[in-house]
Structures are given as C-alpha cells and as structure tokens.
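Hi R.,

As promised on Friday, here is the backbone we talked about, encoded as structure tokens. Could you run it through your design pipeline when you get a chance and send me back a sequence?
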C-alpha cells in the first residue's frame, strides 16, 4: 500500500523555493512584528495610565499617589495577545481590509480588557490591585496606540509589500459562488489582480498549467501568487491534487468549501472574503503533529477516563445483564502510516454475528454506490446503517450518544490514537483505498475530528477523505480544542451516533 501516494507531476522549480520562502517568511515576520507592536502598545498604555493618575490626583485636590506600576500589566499583555490571536489579528489577511481590521481590533481590545479587569479583581492580591481609573485609561490609550501602530505603521508596510510583489490571485472554479468570490477579491488589497480559471483547463496537467500561468507574469516581482480553489467546481480528488500542485509552485493556497468551516479558528477569513474560505497551512508531506499534541492527548484522555469511569462501570453491568459475552470489544484498526493497533470499544453488538452486513455496505459507500438510508433536515443524504440487526438494545442506546467510544480514551493514552484526527479504518477498508485515499493516514487517528463535527454520515466517502486530508494540513492546538468542544453538544444530544 502506498501510504502517501498522491503524485503530482514535476514542473520547473527555478522560482518555486525562493517564492515560497519569501511568502512564508513575510507572513511569519508580520506575525512577529504584530505581536511585538501589541505588547508595546499594551505595556505603554498601562504605564501611561498609571503616570496620568499619579500626576492628575494633586491637580484636582486629591492626595498624591506614587507612580508605581504593578504586575497587572502582565495579565493585560497575556490577555491581549491571546484574544488577538483567537480573533485572527496575527494573520496576514488582517491587513487586507482596513475597515475589517479596525472593527476586529475594537472588538478584540474590548474583550481583552474585560478579561483583564475581571482577572485583576478576581485575584485577591495587592500586586494586582488596580483602581478603575487606571483600567479605563489603559483601555482608551491602548486603543489609540494599537490603532496608530497597526492601521498606520504596519498597514503602510503591508501596502509597500503588496506594491513590490504585485501578487496575482488565481481562482479555480466556474460556479456562481466562484464568480462572486472573484468579484470580492477584486475589491481587496493584495488580492485585486484576479484571474478566474476554469478547472477543466487544469485537468490534463495541474502543476504544469499553474506553472505556465505564474511564469507568464511580465516580471519576477509578480511571481507571488495566491490560488483559491472552489471545491464545489471539482471532485475531492481534484481539489487535493490542485492544492498539492499550487503548493509545489510556492503559492499561498485557499480552499472554498462548506465542509471545512471548523478548520478556521476564527471568522476573519470568511468575513473578509464573504465566503467559507480556509487557508491551507502546510503540505501533506509536512503534516507532522504539533509539539503539544501528545501532551494534550495524554492529559485530556487521563481526565476523561477518570470522569467517565463511573459511566463505563454502569454500562458494563448493563451489557453483561442484557447480552451474553464480554463487556469490551477489540478490533484491529489501521493507524498512522498504516500501522495496525487494537481498537477498544464497549460491546454494542451480539457476539458471533455475521460482519458481512457492515463490510458490504462500507464497500458500497467507498465505491459511491451505497444508497442513502435517510434524509437530513437540510435535505442532505445520510449514509449510515441504522437497521443493523446485530446491535443490542443497550448497544443502540450507547451508539446514539457515542458512549461505546469511551474506552478509546485508553487507546489515546497509550499512544495508538489522538483525541482529534481521522477515524481509524478497518484493514479491509484500507485494502479498497485508492492511493489518494491513503493520504488520510498521514496523521494519527482520532476519537473525534472534522468529519464528526462537519460531516458525520451526511457526506460521501470522498468528501470525508477531503475533510481528513485538510485537517492534516491545518492541524494545530486551538483547532483540536475547538473540535473537542464542538463534539460535546453533538454527543449529549445524540446527534450523529447510532
């Protein structure tokens, strides 16, 4: 089996590496400068507020107070950077639209100072005791400072970069949504040189076609490019191929799809582009777990095992009383890079029953010949067997609320799986994979993931593969936390289980 078997044809690479490094370093540099500017603005605003209070008290006939900054500035800085990061203000796209940048700045500043004020008053310590006047002045001065730095100085730097690079935006798509996005891009700084490309023009040689377009620019300064891919105009396999081809050429890649909404931790891109746009952050061959993923998995799974232990004990008794056989069910599954492991679940089926019902339906689902078993509230087809005669009454209840999945937290703690990632397939499923399907095995398997939050049984097999591959190419801690939190209500409401 070829685990990472998507192959794109080789195009001329003379300009690819420099352009990619220039774009990546430019984005990273803007992020670092923006963080530094915000820290300087927050610290300066606090010091200025303390100084104004010290000078103003005698002027209005009140007892003088010493100029003595406290440790509250540390809380302010941490809250500011955290909220600004969560709001998308450290993305390069924040500088594309000044009105959106200003509005996002004001909302994030208000949130950061609300968190700071609550934290200061919640900590019962003289080191963090601040008068209300200082907090109010700090907020006002900070908004002034950060707007000057970001909307004045850094915005000018961004526009100078745009004028120097003269970037081109290629939009691959021929749908109504693609044409609407092209119109929107034409009104955004840094994306306004738009070329709409029909996907049919690329199918004979994706990378060569894109390379020809980029090489056709009249000067080397115009080689910087963004490629927007409209997923509704192409098949999932073609989408993944287009992403890989554009990345090989060093372009920044954006994907337009309603199947991937949770991949963005904030609404900055969807608000900016007025469409469900996700930036593809890395290539599939560099989709390594982020450094804190294993720590997040171990802590999270240990806590969940402790919390769910009483529930698992009650379910174990119910299983033994209502159905002969063991409480736990083990099954060989395929993990990262095709490595097999023993997958643990609470038993929800009668023992020694024919497994061909599931295997036949899964093969039909993977081949695109399975019939929908129901229709969702939005009219979408639902692909999941709900009438499997092997499932016991207790098993049906457990599956409705995904309670049979609780033992998988032990798989996570052992390192077989992750809390978030593609669902681990069965060996016979992997044997049916095309090469590009195997890309989903590039990252650790998970208990929950993008499919559970955005798709469940309402997407086709190829669309599920697209979701898994795009998760691998956008994997990060905040995304995993978000997907875990979004899984909780779906589990409690029994939405998608069964």
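Update: got your reply. Pasting your designed sequence below so it's all in one thread:
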């Amino acid at each position: 089996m070829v685990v990472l078997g998507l192959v794109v044809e080789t195009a001329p690479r003379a300009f690819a590496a420099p352009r990619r490094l220039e774009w990546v370093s430019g984005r990273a540099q803007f992020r670092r400068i923006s963080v530094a500017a915000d820290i300087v603005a927050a610290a300066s605003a606090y010091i200025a507020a303390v100084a104004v209070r010290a000078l103003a008290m005698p002027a209005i006939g009140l007892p003088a107070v010493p100029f003595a900054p406290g440790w509250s500035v540390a809380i302010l800085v941490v809250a500011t950077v955290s909220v600004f990061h969560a709001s998308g203000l450290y993305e390069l796209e924040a500088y594309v639209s000044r009105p959106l940048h200003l509005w996002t700045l004001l909302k994030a500043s208000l949130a950061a100072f609300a968190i700071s004020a609550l934290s200061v008053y919640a900590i019962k310590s003289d080191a963090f005791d601040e008068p209300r006047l200082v907090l109010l002045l700090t907020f006002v001065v900070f908004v002034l400072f950060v707007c000057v730095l970001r909307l004045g100085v850094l915005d000018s730097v961004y526009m100078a970069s745009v004028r120097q690079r003269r970037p081109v935006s290629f939009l691959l798509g021929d749908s109504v949504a693609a044409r609407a996005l092209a119109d929107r891009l034409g009104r955004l700084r840094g994306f306004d040189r738009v070329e709409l490309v029909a996907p049919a023009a690329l199918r004979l040689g994706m990378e060569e076609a894109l390379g020809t377009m980029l090489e056709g620019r009249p000067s080397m300064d115009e080689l910087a490019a963004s490629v927007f891919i409209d997923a509704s105009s192409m098949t999932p396999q073609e989408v993944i191929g287009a992403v890989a081809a554009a990345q090989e050429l060093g372009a920044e890649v954006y994907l337009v799809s309603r199947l991937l909404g949770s991949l963005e931790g904030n609404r900055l891109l969807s608000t900016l582009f007025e469409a469900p746009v996700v930036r593809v952050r890395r290539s599939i061959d560099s989709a390594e777990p982020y450094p804190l993923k294993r720590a997040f998995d171990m802590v999270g799974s240990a806590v969940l095992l402790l919390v769910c232990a009483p529930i698992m004990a009650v379910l174990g008794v119910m299983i033994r009383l209502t159905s002969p056989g063991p409480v736990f069910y083990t099954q060989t599954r395929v993990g990262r890079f095709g490595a097999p492991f023993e997958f643990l679940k609470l038993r929800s089926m009668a023992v020694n029953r024919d497994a061909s019902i599931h295997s036949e339906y899964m093969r039909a689902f993977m081949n695109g010949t399975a019939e929908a078993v129901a229709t969702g509230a939005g009219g979408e087809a639902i692909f999941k067997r709900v009438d499997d005669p092997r499932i016991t009454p207790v098993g049906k209840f457990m599956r409705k609320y995904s309670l049979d999945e609780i033992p998988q937290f032990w798989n996570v703690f052992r390192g077989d799986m992750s809390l978030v990632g593609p669902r681990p397939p069965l060996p016979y499923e992997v044997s049916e994979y095309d090469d590009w399907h195997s890309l989903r095995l590039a990252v650790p398997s998970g208990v929950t993931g993008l499919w559970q939050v955005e798709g469940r049984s309402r997407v086709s097999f190829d669309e599920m593969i697209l979701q898994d591959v795009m998760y691998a190419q956008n994997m990060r801690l905040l995304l995993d936390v978000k997907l875990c939190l979004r899984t909780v209500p779906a589990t409690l409401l029994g939405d998608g289980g069964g």
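One thing I noticed while checking it: The longest helix spans residues 16-59.

Thanks again,
M.
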